[in-house]
Amino acid sequence: MSVILLAPLILLLISLAVATIFVIYSLLYKQRINRALNENNPKHSALPDMRTALSATIIVILLINIFSLNAQIDNLNDEIVDLNSKMDRNMYLLNQNVNDANSKLDEFINDNKLISSFNFNVKDTNPDDIMAEIDFELSLKTFSENTEVSIVINNNVAKLTKNTAGKYTGNLSMNMFEEINNVSALITEDNTTTRENIYNIDLECLWKYVLPSMDVICNPDYEYEKDTIHLQFVDGGYIYMNTTDNYFTDAYVEILIDNVSVKKISINPSKNISDYTVNLDESFKTEPDSTVEIYVIATDNLGYTHKTLTFSCDESSQTALFDYEEIFDNTGKKVGGRNIY
């Protein structure tokens, strides 16, 4: 339970205890006063007067309240710092994506002479196989009633159908893990065909439109101390999970020393949550020539395993930071991958 939620409960319990003590005190005070009056004894032992006791009780409650509020403020500040850190990471990724999209749009407009716009949508036609369907929409700058258009991806050809003036649509089914090297349009006019390459579109990696994917920042501060290495995620390791119609069902961060697992940190992904922070502040035994690696590994609901090597180092301080996501099927065979940044 959060300290912010726990502190008021503790305050309430302590206040009830103080109030109970005050009530008992009042009863004892009255009992002694009555005994003294009945005995008509000017010399009697009595507790301090009621105003003194009430003042002391109020002071105690105020002190407890101040302590509780300070604890709540400290924890609220920590949560605000953590939230700001997550927002900064999200804004960094968002700005990067927006800048990439704007850059690709500008380059597309400058590079393509015959095509005014090109759009596509990737769909998973059958979750039990590796095929994905791509819907295309292409508009030409100049055209006639006899203009014919086809899209060519690697050696796959999709003939488009004219819908409205200058706009053509169609679809193509492809292996979602096939590496795409070239996308072009064949434009035929009066028995003359012109090929125009389509650049700066995000079609290099089809599977990311079908399967979930990860953006990972898990690079710790590290320090060697005799026969150990100390690893710490200073601001927390950060993992952003991109979901499609499919999602991750299991995920963890794994630390290996000389290919031997020494620690796993579970993430417990949810379909409705994208941001995850992982904490690490721990030392591990090493040999003089040991290699330390940190992986982020996740399994999606279709059974594919996603694996990213996010950090690697040895005692000579040679550090390698990786940003490549590998995909393995349920037999352990590598079927695809992508550059994260």
Name some characteristics of this structure.
341 residues; 7-stranded antiparallel sheet; Immunoglobulin-like; 4-stranded antiparallel sheet
Helix share, percent: 25-40%
What is the strand tally? Answer: 21
* Cα distance spanning the termini: 37 Å
SSE succession: HHEEEEEEEEEEEEEEEEEEEEE
**Uncertain runs:** none
Number of domains: 3
Average pLDDT for all residues: 80
Offer a quick outline of the entry:
The protein is α+β, with helices and mostly antiparallel strands. Helix content is 29%, strand content 40%. The longest helix is centred in the N-terminal third of the chain and has 62 residues, at 50-111.
Question: What does this protein look like?
Answer:
The chain is built from two helices and 21 strands. Helix 1 (about 5-40) runs antiparallel to helix 2 (about 50-110). The strands form five sheets. Strands 13, 14, 17, 18, 19, 20 and 21 form a seven-stranded antiparallel beta sheet that branches. Strands 1-2-6-5 form a four-stranded antiparallel beta sheet, with no helix packed on it. The mean pLDDT is about 80. By secondary structure, the chain is of the alpha+beta class. The protein folds into three domains: about 5-40 and about 50-110; about 110-210, Sandwich (Immunoglobulin-like); about 210-340, Sandwich (Immunoglobulin-like).
